[in-house]
Task: structure prediction
Amino acid sequence: LFAAGLAIAWTVNREVATRAQRTIEAQARSVAEENLRRQLLKTDFAKPVRGQRLAALDDLFRRRVLIPGIVGTRLFNSHGTITYAARHELIGRKVPYTTDLADVFAGLSRRRVTHTVTWRGRQNVKVLQSLIPVREAASTKPIGALELDQDYRAAAVSIGQASDRLALILA
Result:
């Protein structure tokens, strides 16, 4: 009976974690579609942005994307080149997840739990990283992609609350 209870707890905990991650990914997709779609240009993905466009994207991302809980964001193209990042030193570098590029540019979102440096420089922060295709308003084909790094503590709170409830039920 105890083993069955542990198996149920593990299964429920895993399901809750997956749902929390899906919810956070849906929020990231909403940010991409509602806040950025009309603001981003094809040229923002063609090559690393500089000058006035960099300043304009900084303003846009700080007002509409880098909300509480979002600790990093990048735009990248189909070659894996980061064309914009809140941490400017990343601009022009390649993304480390090149195996996901084909899926993202086929229109599929991807997510993973990883560790990163925040746009403010905080080291080794656990995040739920969402890779979201960015489309022009009238198109289904992605013109680029958005990476959003969301502090994993937001998902962990949901998971922890569900685990506590489950422990009470099984007790």
